[in-house]
Design goal:
The chain is mostly helical. The protein has 33 helices and no strands.
Length: 556
């Protein structure tokens, strides 16, 4: 027996050792492949870098370092999937301030303000004390045109890093957006000083860029032309500075514009990122037709680049070339962005009045999204752009149901449901709010009112209305809901007493006055009821409310 136990223990030890060794090998291999990917990136070998990272992520989809590197690669190749990889990196390391701020910056670059603001709100107390946080928060505020808040963040960076000249530049840029002539002049003086900085080439270039933008805004064409030429002469200038030069030439209607575009096209043709940026500029600043005319002349390997194929599809969509769009997309594969390709095919088929085929393609788009948040958001953005209201609403519900923390989706659905008179949808949304925050009296009051309108007795709206009113009887909205509850129960005299506790101005509020008018009529005061029911005409009413008000106006 002892011998058997020894044998079992030995076997167990061997198995455990083998498993530990296997796990150790897997960890080593992941690190090794990440190192190889980093080496390939250093040599600008993007293809092999992606292959290495795909091996790592195939073994461990939560590998944070590989997710970060994929995000960087996507940004370098202008792929919108950068946002998805940033989110994965943050999900794998949710306490990382660097990953959180990187996600905010990427979202800003892709103009996804919902993701940017929601992610920024997740920064903890300690993170909010850093200069990095205030830099990014200032950029978000500036994008939202919240100039006062942006200035507060920039001033905090100045306080935290007094020797850093970058915040001084940002503060000067902010002041250029103001209307104070003296402050504008001081800001330009600061930027001109930084533009002469002999020690910091990056800062010098940024100062020149801001001066160019300022000159362009003020129609100082010659100054903008001179500065944009000076910028290109700087050793720290980047490719986007060429696009800024094109902006200036275009605004000046300069004869050098077309020759310069041709020269930049020749420079960009071997670099997908440069090609994407230049074609995007042509599409938005000149015309989608011009951009497409160049894109279809690119080598086949470039035309199948994911980001460039998407850009060409956008050009065809902008010019309503539905047949060309469908024929091109049918022959392509966009890998992890195939859900967008299916969506674009849906648009093309609808453009050709092929509704049944379009429905099938949209279903493929939804399936290919794999219910990934950023994929759903990308589809929502396209549906909104195309004014597909039904699809937009369905996508918002999918996002909210699967990612409850995305409250912007709830707010969008609230606005849409209210505007379209979808009372039951509103009740469902408010019920979610109450479930999440059971002590929120405002949400409870709204739920009670909606349930009363819909006669949703299963929610016990009369009890809910009484509970809310008992806790805050001076709130006009809560009092109105409770009085309506009493009215529905035939307790008109009690309902009138509740209303009479409110101030005269509160009774004239259109959201309250209609219900007061109904109670007045029910208690026999028709003359007074008419006056208050007329106040209610100014309110945006739900269908059930309108029906009630119309009935109350009859006979008075």
């Amino acid at each position: 027996m002892r011998k058997l136990i020894v044998i079992v223990l030995c076997c167990t030890t061997v198995l455990l050792g083998g498993y530990a060794g296997f796990r150790g090998y897997k960890v080593w291999k992941q690190r090794h492949m990440v190192t190889m990917a980093r080496d390939f990136l250093a040599k600008s070998d993007l293809r092999n870098a992606v292959l290495c990272l795909n091996q790592v992520l195939g073994t461990n989809p939560q590998n944070v370092e590989a997710s970060r590197m994929m995000a960087n690669l996507c940004e370098a190749t202008r792929s919108p999937n950068a946002l998805m990889w940033r989110e994965r990196a943050l999900a794998g390391n949710p306490r990382s301030l660097d990953d959180r701020l990187a996600l905010v910056r990427t979202a800003l670059g892709l103009q996804d303000l919902n993701t940017a603001t929601n992610t920024l709100q997740g920064v903890d107390v300690e993170g909010r004390k850093t200069a990095e946080y205030h830099n990014v928060a200032g950029a978000v505020a500036l994008t939202l045109r919240q100039y006062g808040e942006a200035e507060q963040h920039i001033r905090e960076v100045v306080r935290l890093e007094p020797a850093n000249p970058s915040p001084q530049l940002n503060l000067a840029v902010l002041r250029l957006h103001g209307t104070n002539a003296e402050a504008n002049a001081e800001a330009r003086a600061v930027l001109n000083g930084l533009a002469l900085n002999p020690t910091n080439g990056h800062l010098r270039c940024q100062a020149i860029r801001e001066l160019i933008s300022d000159a362009a805004r003020n129609k100082q064409t010659n100054t903008a032309l001179s500065l944009s030429k000076k910028l290109l002469d700087q050793t720290n200038s980047v490719y986007s500075d060429r696009l800024l030069r094109l902006d200036v030439l275009l605004a000046a209607k300069h004869p050098d514009l077309q020759p310069t575009i041709a020269a930049y096209q020749c420079e960009a043709i071997t670099d997908p990122a440069k090609t994407h940026d230049l074609a995007s500029w042509q599409m938005t600043r000149v015309s989608p037709s011009d951009a497409l005319a160049w894109l279809i002349t690119l080598p086949p390997a470039m035309q199948t680049n994911q980001a460039l194929a998407f850009l060409a599809a956008q050009c065809r969509e902008s010019t309503h070339d539905w047949k060309g769009l469908e024929n091109t997309l049918a022959k392509q594969s966009w890998g992890d962005l195939d859900f967008i390709r299916y969506a674009m095919r849906t648009r093309a088929l609808r453009g050709m009045d092929m509704g049944s085929a379009a429905k099938l393609e949209w279903d493929k788009a939804l399936k290919a999204s794999n219910n990934q948040k950023q994929a759903l958001i990308a589809l929502l953005r396209l549906a909104g752009q195309w004014q597909w209201l039904g699809e937009s609403e369905d996508l918002l519900w999918s996002i909210l149901n699967q990612f409850p923390s995305e409250q912007w989706a709830a707010q969008a659905l609230m606005q849409s449901s209210y505007a379209n008179g979808q009372t039951r949808n509103l009740m469902t949304l408010v019920a979610k709010d109450v479930k999440k925050s059971p002590n929120n009296l405002g949400a409870k009051n709204n739920l009670a009112m909606l349930a009363l309108l819909l006669d949703a007795s299963e929610l016990k709206p009369h009890d809910m209305a009484r509970e809310v009113y008992t806790q805050a009887s001076t709130n006009a909205s809560f009092a109105s809901t409770y009085a309506f509850s009493l009215f529905l129960q035939g307790k008109n005299t009690e309902a009138l007493k509740v209303f009479e506790q409110l101030k005269p101005k509160e009774l004239e509020d259109p959201s309250v006055s209609g219900y007061y008018g109904m109670v007045l009529k029910a208690t026999g005061d028709r003359v007074k009821a008419k006056r208050y029911l007329e106040f209610a005409l100014k309110a945006k009413l739900l269908p059930e409310e309108k029906k009630l008000m119309d009935k109350a106006r009859q006979g008075i």
